[in-house]
Amino acid sequence: FKENVNSDLAKELVAMANSSGGRIFIGINDHNQVTGVTPSNAIFSHIQDIASSCDPRVPIEIETYQNILIIHVKEGLNKPYRANKGFFIRAGANSQKMTTREITEFIQAEGKVRFDEMLRNDLEFKKVFNPALLKVFLQRAKLTPNLDDYALLHNLGVLHFHKRKPILNNAGVLFFSDEMFPYLLQATITCALYKGTQKVYI
């Protein structure tokens, strides 16, 4: 419920789009009393402008019921949505601003950032990287090492630079580090030995 259209509307729109959608009733105060608004092209246009100012744009539908405006917000297809005041999500009956950690976890949960592409800023490249493993990889992949190691790793998509500092992603650690377990505790290989060729008895 909102008594009128104000700057907080964008926050509510993105919070619902980042969650499972919802409806916003304009013209009802916090005490559940109908104060009403006057529907007009100007107010419809203002609401659409607020939705368009979100990043990405929040798709909405507006309907009127007597002197109340109802804004229908569907669950977003391009999460996360951001208002000018930040990223918000619905938590019960409230819209809460997400922390940096929550935003990162949210993006990962939405599949926007793949595990193997996540950069490992916490690792020192020279301590983790083993050039011999890159050489073995190039031989098995039948690739000619006509560039330096940095360029090769970058072309393979496992190395990025931040302020000229080389940073491996998780895929780079898995492929080109001698000891991955101190850095990727959840990365394991499980093997099963079967008796015979029917894969019945383990």
How would you portray this structure in words?
The chain contains seven helices and eight strands, in the order H-E-H-E-E-E-E-E-H-H-H-H-E-E-H. The chain has helices at 9-18, 41-53, 100-109, 125-128, 131-140, 149-155, 170-176, and strands spanning 22-26, 60-65, 68-73, 82-83, 86-91, 94-97, 159-162, 165-168. The model has no long low-confidence stretch (mean pLDDT 90). The longest helix has 13 residues, at 41-53. By secondary structure, the chain is of the alpha+beta class. The strands form three sheets. The chain has a three-stranded antiparallel sheet. A three-stranded antiparallel sheet has the order 4-5-6. A two-stranded antiparallel sheet has the order 7-8.
Give the spatial strand order of the biggest sheet. Answer: 1-3-2
- Give the SSE string: HEHEEEEEHHHHEEH
Tally of helical segments:
7
Q: Report the average pLDDT across residues.
A: 90
The biggest sheet, with number of strands, parallel, antiparallel or mixed sense and barrel status, is:
3 strands, antiparallel
Jot down its keywords:
three-stranded antiparallel sheet; alpha+beta; 8 strands; 202 residues
In short:
The chain has 202 residues and is of the alpha+beta class. The protein contains seven helices and eight strands; from the N terminus they run αβαβββββααααββα.
Map the helices and strands.
Layout lengths: L8 H10 L3 E5 L14 H13 L6 E6 L2 E6 L8 E2 L2 E6 L2 E4 L2 H10 L15 H4 L2 H10 L8 H7 L3 E4 L2 E4 L1 H7 L26
Antiparallel strand pairs: 1-3, 2-3, 4-5, 5-6, 7-8
